[in-house]
Each structure stands twice: as C-alpha cells, then as structure tokens.
Amino acid sequence: MSEVVAAPGVCAGGAPGATIEPVADGAAGARENGAGVSVEGAPRPPGRRPTITDVARQAGVSRGTVSRVLNDSPQVSADTRAAVEQAVAETGYRVNTLARGLRTGSTHRVAFLLNEGVSRLFAHPNLPVIVQHCSDALGARGSSMLLLMAGSEDERRRAIEFVDAGAVDGVLVLSWNADPDILTRLEATGVPTVSCGAPRGYDGPIAWTGADDRQGAARAVEHLLSIGRRNLVAITGTDDLPGGDQRRAGFLDVVGADVDPRRVQARPDTRDAAEEVVATLLADVPDLDGMFCGNDVMAAWAVEALQRNGRRVPDDVAVVGFDDSSAALSSTPHLTTMRQDFEAIAGTMVQLLFELLEGRPPRSVVVPTELVVRGSTVG
Amino acid sequence: MSEVVAAPGVCAGGAPGATIEPVADGAAGARENGAGVSVEGAPRPPGRRPTITDVARQAGVSRGTVSRVLNDSPQVSADTRAAVEQAVAETGYRVNTLARGLRTGSTHRVAFLLNEGVSRLFAHPNLPVIVQHCSDALGARGSSMLLLMAGSEDERRRAIEFVDAGAVDGVLVLSWNADPDILTRLEATGVPTVSCGAPRGYDGPIAWTGADDRQGAARAVEHLLSIGRRNLVAITGTDDLPGGDQRRAGFLDVVGADVDPRRVQARPDTRDAAEEVVATLLADVPDLDGMFCGNDVMAAWAVEALQRNGRRVPDDVAVVGFDDSSAALSSTPHLTTMRQDFEAIAGTMVQLLFELLEGRPPRSVVVPTELVVRGSTVG
DNA sequence: TTGTACGCGTTATCAG
DNA sequence: CTGATAACGCGTACAA
Fold it and tell me: pTM of the full predicted structure?
C-alpha cells in the first residue's frame, strides 16, 4: 500500500484548459429536420415543420379528413385512414397543440403554481411529494403539468400572465405564505383553480383540499395523553407555515384553550429556532414529558435538542410530529407522527379541478390523517 | 404550572366533522368576468373573454390599430393610443399569447426539463438553486420559465410533446441519469436546447455548460496534498450522478492513474452507502489521512461515519467535498469544498440559449470552480 | 396615420 | 364518408 505521490500545483492532464470551446460542424441554426430517420419521399420544403396541409397533400385528401383521422373520428373509411396515417409517418407530422388549443379552447395542460421561493421547496420534504402525485394524477387523465415557481413578485406576475393567456385549462395552487392576493388574481383570470390547503385571508368561492390539520393535531395530542403524559407542550409553525394555526388549534382543543401560553410556542421551521425554543420550554416547563410539533422537520430538530439537553426520548419526553415526511425516519428514534395521505390530497386536487372544468361548482374536501406510532413516543 | 387535563378520545371542537363541504353561492362555472373593478361601460357578452376585436369596437378603431398600440408601434397618434389604452382598461382585455405565439412563432417562454424523479430534487440541495437562478436569468430577459418534471417515461413523453408543440422557444435540460435518448428526442423537435452538464453518451452538436468537474476535483486533491496529507482516498458518485466520472478523473489526474483501486470508490449518494464505503476504506486503507468526496452530501455523511469510527476530522482525516451546497455548512465541522458558481452556470445556460435563438451555432462553456477552505481540512 | 386583407395551423359546420 | 369553408385571436404587409 504505497503512499500517494504527485506533483502539487500541477493539473496532471485531461481537463480542458480553455473555458470556452465552440462545438463543431453544427450548421448555424439549421435545426435538423424533424424526423430522425427513414424519411424517404418527403419533398417538403426543409426547415419548416410539416402541417396538416402537408399531410393532406401527401395523402391526396383534404385537411378536414386528416383532422378527422387525427381525432379518431368514427366516420372515416379504413382506406383513407390508412393513407393518412402513412402520410403522417412519411412527413413526420406532429400536431401543433398551440393551434389546436386556439381552436378548441382546451389545452390538456394544467399549471401547478408554487407560490413559494425555491428554498421552501428544499426545506419541506412533503412538497415535492405532492407535486409528483399531482403530476401523476393529471397524467392519468391525459393532461400534463407545468410547474410554475413564483417566489418573487416578478415571477408571480409572469405566472399569472401565463395562466391569463389561456395557456392552461386550470391551475393547482399551493400558497403557504399569507398572500391572499394570488387567489384574487387567479380568480380574475377566470381559469378554474384549486387550492392546496384552506385559503387563509381569502373568502371568495374557491375549491380547495387539504389534511384535517386541526383534528389530526388533536388526535396526536390524545395519543400523548393515552400513554400517560400529562405535562404537554407544543411547538407549532408560524402562521405562514402549512397548518400552522390549525394544528395549534387542534392542540388547544384537547388541552384546553386556557393552558399556560408558555406551553404553546410558534416558531419558523429553522434549526436555530428549534434549538432556542426547546431551551425556552425546558426552562419554563422543566417537568414536561410530552411534546407535539407542527411538522416532522421541527420534531426531528427538537428531538436532537432535547437529547443534547440530557433528556431521553421517549423515556423522559415523548415527541410526536406531523406529516410523516422523510424526516420522520431519518431521526433517531423514528418519529411518531400524523401521516398525511399526500397521494389522496393530490388526487383530490385533480378531481376537484376536473369537476370545475366540467362546470360543476367549487367544493372543498378535507382528507383525514392517520396516527403512526413509532419510537419517539413508545419505547 | 398546573397539569394539562383533558378528556382523551374527544375532539374538543372546531374541526369540521364532515369531510366534504360544498362551498356556497358560486354560480356553477360562471367564471366571474375578468376585470375586478370599475368596469362601467362594457356591454360585452359575459363569460367570454375580451378579444382584440372588442377593444377595437370599444375604441372605435380597427383591430390593426389596437394591435399596433399593443406592440408599441411608433406610428400611431397619441390620441388613438390613449383611446385604445382606455378601451383596453375598460374591457379588461389581456392579450392571448397563444394566438400571438401562433402568429409570431415566438412565445417568450422557456421550458426547464428536469429529467429526474422528484426524489432527486430533494436529495440534491443545489438543484433547486440552479432552477431558481435560471428562472431569474430568463425573467431578466423577459421570458418566463416552465418547469417540466420528467421522472417517468410517461412524463418524458408528455414533456417532449409539449416542447414539440411549439409551446416554448427553447429548452434548458438537466439530465443526470444516463439517458442520452432525451437529447436525441429533443433534437428531433428542432427546438433550441441547452444542456446543464456535459451530455454523456450523446455526441450530437448541442450547447451545454457546467462546472469544471475534473479540474475542480484536481484542485481539491492538491489542497489535501498541500496540507501534508499523503494517504488519500476518494468517494465519488456513480456515473449517473453529476460529475461522477469527471471528478473521479480529476482525483486520478493528481494521484496518478496507477493508484491502488481500493482507494477510489464509487457509490450512489445514500446515507447507507456512505456508511458502508467508509467502513470499507478504513479496513483497506487504515492509515488514510485525506478524503475527497464527489459531493458535499456524501462528504457530510462520510464525516459522520468517520467520527463514529473514532477518527477526528480534520486531525486524523481531512475531508473535502464538492458543490458548496447547504450540506457543507450543516455538517460539523463545516466542509472544505469546491464551490460551484450556480448563478454563473444558470446565467450561461440562458446566455447560450439566447445565442441559439439568434441563430448562432451551439457552444459549450465550462465554468470554473473555487476552493473554499473550512474546518474539515484545517483545524 | 389608419384601415383592409390575409395567414398562422387547427377544428367544426355544412353541403354533397 | 368526404371536401370546402369559416372561424379561433392575433400580427403585418399593403393600400388608402
């Protein structure tokens, strides 16, 4: 096992020295013709993308007939259908959904408007999960999803304009921060919209769905009581976090609204805040034996902080989180938590949207949560 | 400080019992008319969105004139301009960018095609950063960004179809997994495309940009040598991770390609893999004193594993990562790392795309990295 | 300076 | 069963 030897300060080789390296032989802007292979008898003016007219000419039929074939109209003879399909293949034709949408008024596309900065997206493990499930649910219905990130006002303006332009059939919106304005602006576009989570500060008629934050939180607290804990405290998110106020309300529903306010702390979801609030709680409520946290990420940090302060989890303090996000399993011990059925929530969002698209009135649906018991409350 | 008392099993109140709750008084599908306020004299058939024709009628001019006003044509009198603008305000008219795009062939929209599952998005702290910076850079040029997540083949198909439909002017694509196919399919659409990171397994002419993975890795290793470490090992990503092979190559450039292969390990970026590979390395190279990791997340996990095995960082083992992602600062000690200038990379991607849109040939640009020295290599 | 007429690529209507 | 023809909403030569 010989020592590693090398000449420091010298890059041995390989890595290109120049930072700019033009790529060879691509004819300037001469976008290669669509169909990659086997285009034999298509003398169509190159550089232009084939239209329905080209196909019609190639097949020796009218544009209308081609359109009928493309849209699976039943009233078209097998012969002409075959001829058209061959012409489509030969020309490499692909439908221009822009023009189709202009004509039909429907795009089969849905925007997912994420009214948050991208940092939130990383901080909240469940956010990507919802987005993914929505994409799946929309795909199953033949629509594709366009993700619009709107963390800044500039992005918000552009996103609204996009929706406003008729580029999508509907909008799924996720807006945690207290910006009721975005819903107002969306409503002004007239495009059907479904909100993820109850809209706060906006009282117009709007379809929405979300977890039963309040009842779920109550259930979590009842669990703490059921295992004999009596000195309960809560760390909830600030009101701009999902379910912040509702989950706090659920805690109060069980312990009573007249509880010592020092037992109920609201904090932003940062590691430092978790550290600080645990210290505060341990000072104010030294004999605390049960803790409810507004989400798993905060719960995981709180567990770490408790352990650093010499408290054993769950022996000294039982901790329960919310979400059942990935953070619940990367914590030690694993977190007892209220599971949100993100797949159901996403499915419901899409369901509600399609109801709107069919002209039905907006509804709201609350999706139940489920208690998942793990090591942070029972040894 | 009284004990918390409550009746377990009973939800105290507030949370709605029914899971379905229809929203009131929204007239079924009767999307409220666009302009929120002050629409006085607009007797336009409701339910329909105002078109350029409505504005023309309202202003008492022709459609062409309205169009000229909308597009800031210089040859239009101040009077008519004012009249048109008033009519626009009165009718609540907003341009239909779909129709405009159909006519002009330009949409001022760009797709960011994320050829990854959403889980990757969460696992890699730098991914959202790139996406955000691209959105900003595009916004500065008047274009908006549409994020297309294509983790499954179904989503990929839909995304390609979207691009193919002429819905965007260009595409920024990020594809780490070895799927050269996606670039081939994008090329077939003829829509200008810029890849983030050198395309692997695809040799067509394509514009791309990325960090100088190889040279950066070499620089990192030289740093380890410069602080006196001689028994070096490397944990790089597998080839489907960004810069996997190139960063490994950079390591080999410095230590020599004939290094004991047991010193150079490739692993997927999971916590378990980090745990395992550190054990392996400690067994094979017990006197190792310097470690290069292909990214910060792996580096952070490796540091934890080293510490659990009784090695002090940096005293016994100096560790250097790559990316300067958020993981570098949430690790203890903070990680020495090669900083990627994500803002520059994103800016370059957008720059290259606009060059293509202007008809210039595809180029590739390598963005330099910078060594950031922190506690994991110097006490 | 403004109006007219046409075309972008598609679908829908109506004859035949 | 198929072929003209008219929209969809907009931009732009061309004419006035």
Answer: 0.82
**A271/B330 touch (CB, cutoff 8 Å), yes or no:** yes
3-class SS at A37? coil
Which backbone phi and psi does B350 adopt, to 5 degrees? -65, -40
**Is the CB of residue A152 inside 7 Å of nucleic acid strand C?**
no
Instruction: Please tell me which of the candidates A144, A271, A359 has its beta carbon nearest to residue B29.
Output: A359
pLDDT in tens, B51-80: 999 999 989 999 999 999 998 888 889 999
Tokens of A267: 């904090």
Of A257, A248, A255, A305, whose CA–CA distance to A282 is shortest?
A305
Average confidence score pLDDT of chain B: 84
> By CB neighbour count within 10 A (0-12 exposed, 13-18 middle, 19+ buried), where does A72 fall?
exposed
CB contacts < 8 A, A to B, total: 310
Between strands B363-367 and B207-211, the pairing is parallel
d(CA A47, CA A57): 18
In whole angstroms, give the CA distance from residue B124 to residue B73.
47
Other CB atoms closer than 10 Å to residue B237's CB: what's the count? 24
Q: Tell me if A139 and B162 make a contact (CB, 8 A cut-off).
A: no
If residue A267 lies in a helix (H) or strand (E), which one and from where to where? strand A264-267
DSSP class of B2: P
DSSP structure class, residue A280: H
Which one, of A64, A96, A97, lies nearest residue A80 by Cα?
A64
SS3 A28: coil
Asked if residue B224 has pLDDT above 90, the reply is: yes
Q: Nearest C-alpha of chain B: how many angstroms from A156?
A: 10
Q: pLDDT at residue A24 above 60?
A: no
Residue whose C-alpha is closest to residue B197's, from B339, B345, B361: B345
Rounded CA gap, A198 and A209, in Å?
A: 7
Contact B222, A9 (CB under 8 A): yes
Handedness of CA B375, B376, B378, B379 (dihedral sign): positive
Provide, as residue numbers in chain A, all residues whose Cβ is less than 8 Å from the Cβ of B263.
4
Position of tokens 């003879």?
A: A77
In chain A, positions 173-202 with C-beta closer than 7 Å to nucleic chain D are: none
Give A2's contacts in chain B (Cβ within 8 Å).
Answer: 260
DSSP assignment string, A319-335: EEEEE--THHHHSSSPP
Q: Round to the nearest angstrom and report the end-to-end CA distance of chain A.
A: 47
For the stretch B5-38, pLDDT in tens is 333 333 333 333 333 333 333 323 223 332 222 2
User: What distance in Å separates residue B126's CA from the closest CA in chain A?
Assistant: 9
Round to whole Å and give the CA distance between A353 and B374: 50
Q: What is the pLDDT of residue B47?
A: 59
Specify the DSSP element, H or E, that contains A364: strand A363-367
Closest CA to A253 of B6, B205, B332: B6
CB atoms within 10 A of CB A53: 12
CA angle A95, A98, A99 (to 5 degrees): 75
Q: Report CA dihedral (A210, A347, A293, A319) to the nearest 10 degrees.
A: 140
Task: At B315, list the tokens.
Answer: 């005293």
Omega before residue B333 within 30° of 0, cis: yes
Cβ of A49 < 7 Å from strand C? Answer: yes
Tally the C-alpha atoms within 13 A of residue B342's C-alpha that lie toward its C-beta: 17
Q: Kindly report whether the peptide bond that precedes residue A261 is cis, defined as omega within 30 degrees of 0.
A: no
